[in-house]
Amino acid sequence: MDARILIVEDERDIADLLRYHLQEAGFETDYVRDGADALHRAVEKTPDLILLDLMLPEVDGMIVCRLLKNDPRTKNIPVVMVTAKDEEKDRVAGLELGADDYITKPFSPREVVLRVSAVLRRIQVGKQTESTKQIETHGLTIDLDKHQVLTENGPIDLTATEFKLITLFAQSPGRVFTRDILMDVIWGQDYYGIDRTVDTHVSRLRRKLGEFGEHIETVHGVGYRFKESG
Ligand code: CA
After folding, report:
1. Bridge partners of 188?
2. Fewest CB within 10 angstroms: 71, 145, 147, 197, which?
3. How far, in Å, is the centroid of ligand 1 from the Cα of 34?
4. Mapped to the 3 state alphabet, what secondary structure does the chain carry?
5. How far is the CA of 83 from the centre of ligand 1 (A)?
Protein backbone atom coordinates (compact mmCIF):
# COMPACT_ATOMS: atom_id res chain seq x y z
CA MET A 1 0.00 0.00 0.00
CA ASP A 2 1.26 3.46 -0.83
CA ALA A 3 1.97 5.74 2.08
CA ARG A 4 -0.57 8.53 2.60
CA ILE A 5 0.84 11.94 3.38
CA LEU A 6 -1.28 14.67 4.95
CA ILE A 7 -0.03 18.09 3.86
CA VAL A 8 -0.88 20.96 6.20
CA GLU A 9 -0.12 24.23 4.43
CA ASP A 10 -2.10 27.44 4.05
CA GLU A 11 -0.28 28.63 0.94
CA ARG A 12 -1.95 27.06 -2.03
CA ASP A 13 1.06 27.25 -4.38
CA ILE A 14 3.36 25.49 -1.96
CA ALA A 15 0.74 22.85 -1.19
CA ASP A 16 0.24 22.17 -4.91
CA LEU A 17 3.96 21.88 -5.45
CA LEU A 18 4.30 19.42 -2.56
CA ARG A 19 1.35 17.37 -3.74
CA TYR A 20 2.67 17.18 -7.26
CA HIS A 21 6.13 15.97 -6.27
CA LEU A 22 4.95 13.57 -3.58
CA GLN A 23 2.45 12.03 -5.98
CA GLU A 24 5.15 11.73 -8.64
CA ALA A 25 7.21 9.81 -6.08
CA GLY A 26 4.31 7.40 -5.55
CA PHE A 27 2.71 8.79 -2.40
CA GLU A 28 -0.96 9.42 -1.90
CA THR A 29 -1.59 12.91 -0.63
CA ASP A 30 -4.30 14.67 1.28
CA TYR A 31 -4.37 18.37 1.96
CA VAL A 32 -5.74 20.77 4.57
CA ARG A 33 -5.15 24.47 5.03
CA ASP A 34 -5.30 25.04 8.76
CA GLY A 35 -4.54 23.49 12.11
CA ALA A 36 -8.08 22.63 13.15
CA ASP A 37 -8.68 20.72 9.92
CA ALA A 38 -5.31 19.04 10.31
CA LEU A 39 -6.29 17.65 13.71
CA HIS A 40 -9.66 16.43 12.45
CA ARG A 41 -8.21 14.85 9.35
CA ALA A 42 -5.41 13.16 11.30
CA VAL A 43 -7.92 11.48 13.62
CA GLU A 44 -10.33 10.64 10.83
CA LYS A 45 -7.93 9.27 8.23
CA THR A 46 -4.78 8.29 10.17
CA PRO A 47 -2.26 9.30 7.50
CA ASP A 48 1.15 7.57 7.44
CA LEU A 49 2.92 10.89 7.83
CA ILE A 50 2.03 14.55 8.35
CA LEU A 51 3.93 17.32 6.61
CA LEU A 52 3.24 20.27 8.86
CA ASP A 53 3.91 23.89 8.03
CA LEU A 54 4.61 25.84 11.23
CA MET A 55 3.37 29.18 9.91
CA LEU A 56 -0.36 28.60 9.81
CA PRO A 57 -3.23 31.01 10.32
CA GLU A 58 -5.16 30.71 13.59
CA VAL A 59 -3.71 27.62 15.26
CA ASP A 60 0.09 27.73 15.08
CA GLY A 61 1.83 24.64 13.65
CA MET A 62 3.74 24.12 16.89
CA ILE A 63 0.46 23.82 18.81
CA VAL A 64 -0.87 21.44 16.18
CA CYS A 65 2.25 19.32 16.63
CA ARG A 66 1.81 19.27 20.40
CA LEU A 67 -1.86 18.32 20.16
CA LEU A 68 -1.08 15.54 17.67
CA LYS A 69 1.64 14.12 19.91
CA ASN A 70 -0.56 14.31 23.03
CA ASP A 71 -3.50 12.51 21.49
CA PRO A 72 -3.26 8.70 21.72
CA ARG A 73 -5.10 8.44 18.39
CA THR A 74 -2.47 10.45 16.52
CA LYS A 75 0.71 10.36 18.58
CA ASN A 76 2.32 7.61 16.51
CA ILE A 77 1.89 9.40 13.21
CA PRO A 78 5.28 10.79 12.21
CA VAL A 79 5.40 14.55 11.76
CA VAL A 80 7.82 16.38 9.49
CA MET A 81 7.78 20.12 10.19
CA VAL A 82 8.29 22.73 7.54
CA THR A 83 9.98 25.75 9.10
CA ALA A 84 11.28 29.09 7.93
CA LYS A 85 15.00 29.31 7.40
CA ASP A 86 17.12 30.30 10.40
CA GLU A 87 14.40 29.58 12.93
CA GLU A 88 16.69 27.31 14.87
CA LYS A 89 14.75 27.66 18.10
CA ASP A 90 11.60 26.51 16.29
CA ARG A 91 13.33 23.42 15.01
CA VAL A 92 14.59 22.53 18.47
CA ALA A 93 11.18 23.17 20.04
CA GLY A 94 9.47 21.10 17.35
CA LEU A 95 11.79 18.15 17.77
CA GLU A 96 11.24 18.33 21.50
CA LEU A 97 7.50 18.20 20.97
CA GLY A 98 8.02 14.93 19.13
CA ALA A 99 8.34 15.96 15.50
CA ASP A 100 10.37 13.38 13.60
CA ASP A 101 12.24 15.68 11.29
CA TYR A 102 12.14 19.14 9.79
CA ILE A 103 12.59 20.77 6.42
CA THR A 104 13.55 24.41 6.12
CA LYS A 105 12.06 26.82 3.61
CA PRO A 106 12.98 27.39 0.88
CA PHE A 107 13.18 23.66 0.13
CA SER A 108 13.62 21.70 -3.03
CA PRO A 109 10.78 19.28 -3.80
CA ARG A 110 13.39 16.56 -4.15
CA GLU A 111 14.59 17.19 -0.61
CA VAL A 112 11.03 16.90 0.69
CA VAL A 113 10.55 13.55 -1.03
CA LEU A 114 13.87 12.30 0.37
CA ARG A 115 13.12 13.39 3.94
CA VAL A 116 9.60 11.97 3.87
CA SER A 117 10.87 8.67 2.49
CA ALA A 118 13.64 8.56 5.09
CA VAL A 119 11.25 9.10 7.99
CA LEU A 120 8.86 6.41 6.71
CA ARG A 121 11.76 3.97 6.23
CA ARG A 122 13.03 4.70 9.71
CA ILE A 123 9.62 4.00 11.26
CA GLN A 124 9.59 0.68 9.41
CA VAL A 125 13.08 -0.21 10.68
CA GLY A 126 12.06 0.82 14.19
CA LYS A 127 9.11 -1.57 14.11
CA GLN A 128 11.36 -4.40 13.03
CA THR A 129 14.02 -3.79 15.67
CA GLU A 130 11.41 -3.90 18.42
CA SER A 131 11.14 -7.63 17.86
CA THR A 132 14.74 -8.37 16.94
CA LYS A 133 17.54 -8.39 19.45
CA GLN A 134 20.27 -7.09 17.20
CA ILE A 135 20.78 -3.98 15.17
CA GLU A 136 23.28 -4.03 12.34
CA THR A 137 24.35 -0.74 10.88
CA HIS A 138 27.45 0.74 9.27
CA GLY A 139 29.43 -2.42 10.07
CA LEU A 140 28.46 -2.30 13.75
CA THR A 141 26.41 -4.99 15.43
CA ILE A 142 24.51 -3.94 18.53
CA ASP A 143 23.39 -6.87 20.63
CA LEU A 144 20.50 -5.68 22.79
CA ASP A 145 20.45 -8.78 24.99
CA LYS A 146 24.14 -8.89 25.75
CA HIS A 147 24.50 -5.12 25.87
CA GLN A 148 27.41 -5.39 23.52
CA VAL A 149 28.61 -3.53 20.46
CA LEU A 150 30.69 -5.55 18.02
CA THR A 151 32.84 -4.58 15.08
CA GLU A 152 34.77 -6.91 12.82
CA ASN A 153 37.70 -6.32 15.17
CA GLY A 154 35.78 -7.48 18.21
CA PRO A 155 33.66 -5.97 20.97
CA ILE A 156 33.87 -2.34 22.06
CA ASP A 157 33.82 -1.68 25.76
CA LEU A 158 31.09 0.87 26.50
CA THR A 159 29.53 2.24 29.67
CA ALA A 160 25.79 1.73 30.22
CA THR A 161 25.13 5.34 29.18
CA GLU A 162 27.21 5.04 26.03
CA PHE A 163 25.40 1.84 25.15
CA LYS A 164 22.04 3.55 25.57
CA LEU A 165 23.20 6.37 23.34
CA ILE A 166 24.45 4.20 20.49
CA THR A 167 21.31 2.03 20.65
CA LEU A 168 19.07 5.08 20.50
CA PHE A 169 20.99 6.53 17.57
CA ALA A 170 21.13 3.27 15.66
CA GLN A 171 17.42 2.61 16.11
CA SER A 172 16.61 5.86 14.33
CA PRO A 173 19.26 6.61 11.74
CA GLY A 174 18.74 10.04 10.22
CA ARG A 175 16.68 11.28 13.12
CA VAL A 176 17.89 14.44 14.84
CA PHE A 177 18.01 14.17 18.63
CA THR A 178 18.20 17.38 20.62
CA ARG A 179 20.35 17.44 23.74
CA ASP A 180 17.25 17.73 25.93
CA ILE A 181 15.69 14.68 24.34
CA LEU A 182 18.90 12.72 24.84
CA MET A 183 19.03 13.76 28.49
CA ASP A 184 15.41 12.71 29.01
CA VAL A 185 15.88 9.36 27.33
CA ILE A 186 19.17 8.51 28.96
CA TRP A 187 18.74 9.90 32.46
CA GLY A 188 15.00 10.46 32.75
CA GLN A 189 12.91 13.59 33.06
CA ASP A 190 13.99 14.29 36.63
CA TYR A 191 17.61 14.63 35.79
CA TYR A 192 18.96 18.15 35.93
CA GLY A 193 22.00 18.10 33.74
CA ILE A 194 23.51 20.62 31.43
CA ASP A 195 23.90 20.35 27.68
CA ARG A 196 27.61 19.76 28.11
CA THR A 197 26.90 16.47 29.88
CA VAL A 198 25.45 15.07 26.69
CA ASP A 199 28.31 16.41 24.60
CA THR A 200 30.83 14.77 26.90
CA HIS A 201 29.16 11.38 26.67
CA VAL A 202 28.76 11.61 22.91
CA SER A 203 32.37 12.58 22.34
CA ARG A 204 33.57 9.75 24.55
CA LEU A 205 31.34 7.35 22.66
CA ARG A 206 32.65 8.62 19.34
CA ARG A 207 36.21 8.12 20.50
CA LYS A 208 35.56 4.56 21.63
CA LEU A 209 33.85 3.73 18.35
CA GLY A 210 36.96 4.81 16.48
CA GLU A 211 36.33 5.04 12.74
CA PHE A 212 32.65 4.22 13.34
CA GLY A 213 32.32 7.32 15.48
CA GLU A 214 32.09 9.50 12.41
CA HIS A 215 28.58 8.17 11.81
CA ILE A 216 27.40 10.25 14.76
CA GLU A 217 27.00 13.70 13.24
CA THR A 218 26.70 16.97 15.09
CA VAL A 219 23.70 19.00 13.96
CA HIS A 220 24.80 22.50 14.67
CA GLY A 221 22.79 24.29 17.34
CA VAL A 222 20.38 21.38 17.64
CA GLY A 223 21.95 18.09 18.71
CA TYR A 224 23.06 14.85 17.10
CA ARG A 225 22.10 12.48 14.35
CA PHE A 226 23.24 9.01 13.31
CA LYS A 227 23.95 8.79 9.59
CA GLU A 228 21.64 6.68 7.51
CA SER A 229 23.41 3.70 6.02
CA GLY A 230 23.60 2.98 2.32
CA1 CA B 1 2.32 28.88 5.82
Report:
1. none
2. 145
3. 9
4. CCCEEEEECCCHHHHHHHHHHHHHCCCEEEEECCHHHHHHHHHHHCCCEEEEECCCCCCCHHHHHHHHHHCCCCCCCCEEEEEECCCHHHHHHHHHCCCCEEEEECCCHHHHHHHHHHHHHHHHHHHHHHHCCEEEECCEEEECCCCEEEECCEEECCCHHHHHHHHHHHHCCCCEEEHHHHHHHHHCCCCCCCHHHHHHHHHHHHHHHHHHHHHEEEECCCEEEECCCC
5. 9
Cα of 20 vs centre of ligand 1, distance in Å, is 18
- Residue 61 and residue 55 in contact, taking contact as beta carbons nearer than 8 Å: yes
Cβ atoms of 48 and 109 within 8 Å: the answer is: no
CA of 157 to the centre of ligand 1 (A): 48
Residues with CB under 5 A from ligand 1 (ion): 10, 53, 55
CB 144 within 8 A of CB 133: yes
Task: Determine the distance separating the centroid of ligand 1 and the alpha carbon of 57, expressed in angstroms.
Answer: 7
Sign of CA dihedral 156, 160, 165, 167: positive
pTM: 0.74
**How big is the chain, counted in residues?**
230
Q: Is 63 exposed, middle or buried (0-12, 13-18, 19+ CB in 10 A)?
A: middle
Give tens-digit pLDDT for 128-179: 666 678 888 888 899 988 889 998 888 999 988 899 899 989 888 888 999 8
